[in-house]
């Protein structure tokens, strides 16, 4: 699995690029950096870009649930960018776990996702 975390714009926007299966170790890198942005900016916006994504291992799934519970109100917008129907379904599945405005984009529209995530800041 490949994992990259990028800070964009004024630091309020976090772009996460994932390939393969998301692991607990990836969360160990993602969570502290994201929590630092939340401390600094209050609410953050996340752009989650998936390439050949195969979901979460059990450790990552548990870390994701804990993160969602802790930061239920801390994410303002969540753009999910993917390549398949099940990834599009994630945008619906995520709704009960956050107060964020969530929108799905096809991988071909990644620039539109970036525009949407940064709009109205």
UniProtKB/TrEMBL annotation:
Pfam families: SpoIIAA-like
Transmembrane segments: none
SUPFAM superfamilies, sorted: SpoIIaa-like (SSF52091)
InterPro entries: SpoIIAA-like (IPR021866), SpoIIAA-like_sf (IPR038396), STAS_dom_sf (IPR036513)
Designated name of the protein: SpoIIAA-like
Origin species: Neorhodopirellula lusitana
